[in-house]
Amino acid sequence: MKNLLIYTSILILTSCAIQKGKYKVSKKETTEKYANTITVEELKKHLTILASDEYEGRETGKKGQIMTGDYLKNEFIKMGIAPGNNGSYFQNFTLTETTSPTGIFNYKNKIFNYLEDFYFYQNYTSVNNVTINVQTEDIIFVSHGIKNKERDDYKNLNLKGKTAVILVENPEKIKFTWRQKLDAAKKNGAEVVFFYSEKFKENTKRLEHYLTKSKLELGNKLNTEKKNINIPFFFISKEFYTQLTVNSKEDKEEESKFSNYNKLKFFTTSNKKLVQSNNVLGFIEGSDEELKKEVIIITAHYDHLGIINGVVNNGADDDGSGTVALLEIAQAFQIAKNEGNGPKRSVLIMPVSGEEKGLLGSSYYADNPVFPLKNTVVDLNIDMIGRIDTFHTNDNYVYLIGADKISEELHYVSEAVNKTYSNLELDYRYNNDKDPNRFYYRSDHYNFAKKGIPVIFYFTGVHEDYHKPTDDIEKILFPKLARITKLVFYTAWEIANKEERLKITTTEKE
What we know:
- By secondary structure, the protein is of the alpha/beta class.
- The chain is built from 15 helices and 22 strands.
- β16 (about 305-310) and β17 (about 310-315) form a beta hairpin.
- α3 crosses α10 and α4 runs parallel beside α10.
């Protein structure tokens, strides 16, 4: 996915000069004045509303998300912020909703049900509205399914056209993800994969919101089936695993009585319909006649998980915290503009929807930009900045992800801004390309990075209430939220008022 291209040696030399400390930020009272309009009280006021049960968890395409979009629009109007989409505050887009699947396996005269005995990710595997038939003799146990320099579980196995059964957990000191195992099985000829984990019930509960909710895709896909590069794969319970891997004397006796006894049959169904969603765009036009053509974009997703099993998931941190931060940043820029001190470059404040369904709103904007991507200087993306995680004992930190990947200058600008104004601990733990969490690829900034636009992702980590109904406003650390919101404002302000545009050193390519 990534193909890093070095543009020129001149740009490298420039970034090296910046690294040696030549980028300086001059502390200005006016900048601090506008940053100080970002307050704990106003952040709490907005989040108390948006993270309330009335907004029904803000699920994309549902009532709560539409209500939230209207709230954000009305707040922009109150602040005097101009609409960002040719006279409209909304960028509307159509989504195809595929309902949560229902499915069963029939094997050895037993029925195995979706979520009770198995689950699958309908976003990643082609098993919607299909039937799968597998014979017992075609089911092969492949142990841990590892194939690397040190180990080959496929040695002497012929998997061509077969079904692989693979353990999810690894032997001690070996790191091999289920995605890597799926890829290895496919390369070795497997046509279907069953993954078994001792933590099946625990994982099913943890992933419930994914497994029971509908899938959304951009565009009208009512009459089309998306071609999926993955082979069918499933995660199965202990009982199901035992049936697949153990053939007893009783099984052979039953097989002699029933011709279909050892034939594994699977069938699933789902339905489609169209739904509407939108991004919300507030625009602060730059004050410099030439530089105002260039745009700083600041994003956060305002959708969340909605209602699951009758319980509202309010998503106070994910990403109510980022959403209310956008409102305060927008207000700070607009106050500066009203007083004749507006930014030289233009600033687009854009709460996006559909993040929880696959980064859909930001993907739509990146493919259908209101402002030309060639004029887009940076995307500063905020997702979950209101809590503290287990790696920290104090709350004076923020994770920064992606700042150095496309523009090394952006990284050093960010560092200088923080040193000048905020003095937060900037933690780069998740900025490593080998980060197993892959956070760089999991929030809305990535859709801009794929277009070669520099990005920073602001994040404070996963906590015990992540994607749970307990992610409520009572647990938000508002002074921390305010400090990070100010840091984002300071960074955007510096980039918006620099004499020179950020220099690109590498670019992401899909």
